[in-house]
Amino acid sequence: PAVGDPIQSIYGWRGASAANLPRFATDFPRADGSPAHRRELLTSWRNPVQTLRLANEASEELRRRGVPVSVLRPRPGADAGTVTFALTETVLDERAWLADQVAARYHDVDGSGPPTVAVLVRRNEDSAPIAAELEARGIPAEVVGIGGLLHVPEITDVVATLRLMADPMAGTAAMRLLTGSRWQLGARDLAALWRRATELAAGQIATGGVVTTREELDEALDAVLPTEVVDRAGIADAVVDPGGPEAYSPDGYARIRAFGAQLESLRRRMGQPLPELVADVENTIGVAVEAQIRARRMRGAITGREHLDAFADYVTRYAERPGANLAGLLAFLDTAETIEKGLEPGRVEVAEQRVQILTVHAAKGLEWDVVAIPHLCQGIFPSSKGETTWMRSARELPGPLRGDLAEPEPRGPAAAKLAAARPAGADEGFPVLDLSRVGDRKELEDALTEHKEAIAERRLSEDRRLLYVAITRARHDLLVSAHHWSETGEKPRGGSPFFNELLAIVTETVENGSADEARGLTVDVLADDPPDGAANPLAERVDARMWPTDRLGARRDAVAAAADLVLDELRRREAPALFGALTDPEPDSQAPVAHDAPADEIEAWRAEVEVLLAEHERTNQAEVDVALPAHLSVSQLVDLDTDEREFARKLRRPTPFRPNPIARRGTAFHAWVERWFGATRLLDIDELPGAADESAAPDADLDALREAFLASPWAARSPSEVEVPFETVIGDTVIRGRIDAIFAEPDGSWVVVDWKTGAEPSADSSSVFIQLAAYRIAWAQLAGVPLEKVSAAFHYVRSGRTLAPRDLPDAAALAALLAR
Predict the structure, then answer these.
(1) Beta strands, E only, 14-167
(2) In this structure, what is the dihedral angle of CA atoms 360, 364, 366, 371, given to the nearest 10 degrees?
(3) Regarding the domain delimited by 631-819, which CATH topology (the fold level of the hierarchy) does it fall under?
């Protein structure tokens, strides 16, 4: 059987087609040739009444055009839910409105924790500004997906550094870093750097001083052209070789030299594997620390490393390709940023205690308590991109070569009879260019115009399917918004046809419907349409900012206040002579200088020595308190229980893994088992099969492991789920992991199984069972069953033995482990 919603067929760019489900009954008929039987599941168990009503209205046009699916109905007893609309004057107003609406729902909780929230965008570039608006209100936000990640500030800095390491001519990357919060180079120093780059380029003209060939003449002429000279040496070259200090400010020269030394150091380490190189860049430029400090100001299960970790996952996946290198990685990232839907989305999981921002494509199959659909504007949703056709662009596959072509409409005397016999879904698919009746140029032009219009209409239908998917992700609250003026552009956007269509329904119901019909519906903001000829207020706005940017920004007053507290404490400790310069760094040059009496100077020395001794003692004390991270993997949880001191040491001073750890973890065996059960899925790097299997066998033993597994009783069973990722909160810590397999028992209970390719543990190695305890708790929460209904076991493949401990720690016991 095939199960699916024809209206949610949104993955045409991944090889699927909207026609697959409608045509399934005739593509796979019964034995007697009749169409396969079709049943409908029409009750929505997720959506509230008002959300489902809008979804049905949005999909009505698709049904009218022949999509064979009935209207969904709400579950018995479903609440009304809430639907809130806003049409603001500017995109800045819209982002602020959205963030305020989310903040009101995120913080207004009854003690059960904040709701799950998602912001579903049509374009990746909208993710970062929305995340910044949420974080400004103290709401943790996570951008999901590589396209959106590339617009997050810390990821942009990492990529800029990688680009500058690989290409000294990457001027845009150099300018971002040099003028950013770390180096803060000013205009004078930047101009001096450019002049230095020009000097370096000019110095590369033929060293012999004599031009003897046409090629040398061309090269010499190119080198002296003002518009070309810096193409022979980039800003990055000037950073490494800035020349003498007289051309720069003192602070600027010091920063340039420091940046150059950092860049040279990173370039010397470019030979390491890509994941290690990216981690090296991250640590060297300090973005992880800044992100973690920012996260501490926000409530929720967020460490600040979410975006950096997600980027590292993408890098690791890319690095697994044969011949992967830095230049290829940068090209891969360029593709992800410039070609919409150019990358297959990874597996996305709904996360608690933070707002997730992702594209509608990545949200399919998921649900959140609160869903926001911003920027439902003309030219954005539905999209105005991709208006080219295969007749004008070599990047488009010609229509006749496509595998998802619609069936041509029957013509001729028997057209009516043939049309009545057409199967369901015949009209779905890419439009067919019919030239059968073309006899002259005019008819050809008309046929081509009709074909282009059909392609445009199909793209509009694809975006309507996306809108339906976005609306039906909401479990309780739905926020829909648009704006008139974007940050650029001379003409207002206004609400798109989709927005106006839904707004008209809500407005009509609120104004003329009954109280029950209008319950939960709100039009919160409805800005007037701009008059004809109006100018964009954002284009006219003078956005005055300090440049280079103040790295403390809005935090400057708070940081200054903290510094004052430190100075007050130092004064209280009676060290005025030592710290007087900090409070009065520029004394009045006309005032007489009062020299400290010898006794005061000695007292200052004594205070300074006490401070240094205290610092030395803290640094070298036997017991050092190490803060537990907000996120831990299951294997880290096992390490914590095994040896708390060693675990703390690794946290305090982490050491890099030895190269190629995957081959030592039995990855090939886990991948083979997954294929055996027929459920291959995308993995995150910290969820690699066997990642928690410290004693994994080398992959050379794969054949023996396969034979041993096939001889076990587990090979003959069918798991309910395999490779299930999870994220659960135990105490104050988020635990992440991936369960190898879950089996359903006849009595309604569950067995969680983890495949072990190494040796069995010794009798006193009870810590390894912490892994099973975490898996058991996670599956009980995912399945919504009591913990007593879930058991867990290790199956040691080599020996064929299954260990299923009876008394596994519960959530309270694991929380106590984390709290001690």
Answers:
(1) 43-44, 73-74, 82-90, 117-121, 141-143
(2) 30
(3) Lambda Exonuclease; Chain A (3.90.320)
**Residue tagged 């602020």 (tokens):** 96
252/640 Cα distance (integer angstroms)? 46
Predicted local confidence at residue 698, as pLDDT: 45
Return the SS3 of 383. Answer: strand
- Arithmetic mean of pLDDT over the chain: 78
Q: Does domain 78-145+348-393+437-551 have CATH number 3.40.50.300?
A: yes
Q: How far is CA 761 from CA 100, 669, 713, in A?
A: 53, 20, 21
Q: How far is CA 820 from the centre of its chain?
A: 33
Res. 490: pLDDT tops 50: yes
What is the pTM for the complete model shown?
Answer: 0.56
Q: Which tokens hold the place of 197? A: 């780059």
The Cα-based distances of 298 to 138, 140, 141, 291, 578 in angstroms read 5, 6, 9, 11, 37
Give the count of beta carbons closer than 10 Å to the beta carbon of residue 748. Answer: 8
Buried b (16+ CB within 10 A) or exposed e, 623-637: eeeeebebbbbbbbb
pLDDT 10s digits, 680-713: 443 333 334 444 444 444 445 677 888 888 899 9
Of residues 492 and 183, more confidence is placed in 492
> CA 143 to CA 128: how far, in whole Å?
7
Amino acid at 252: G
Count Cα neighbours of 504 within 13 Å in the Cβ-side half-sphere.
Answer: 9
DSSP 377: B
How many CA within 13 A on the CB side of residue 385? 10
CB atoms within 10 A of CB 365: 10
If you search the block for the tokens 């996260």, which residue do you land on?
295
10 Å Cβ neighbour count for 647? 19
Q: Where are the domains positioned within the chain?
A: 78-145+348-393+437-551, 153-338, 563-620, 631-819
- Which of 223-227, 236-240, 585-589 shows the lowest mean pLDDT across its residues? 585-589
Long-range Cβ pairs for the range 60-63 (8 Å, 24+): 61/461, 61/464, 62/7, 62/461, 62/464, 62/465, 62/468, 63/7
Q: CA of 107: how far to CAs of 81, 110, 213, 296, 478, in Å? A: 18, 9, 74, 17, 17
Rg (CA), the chain: 32
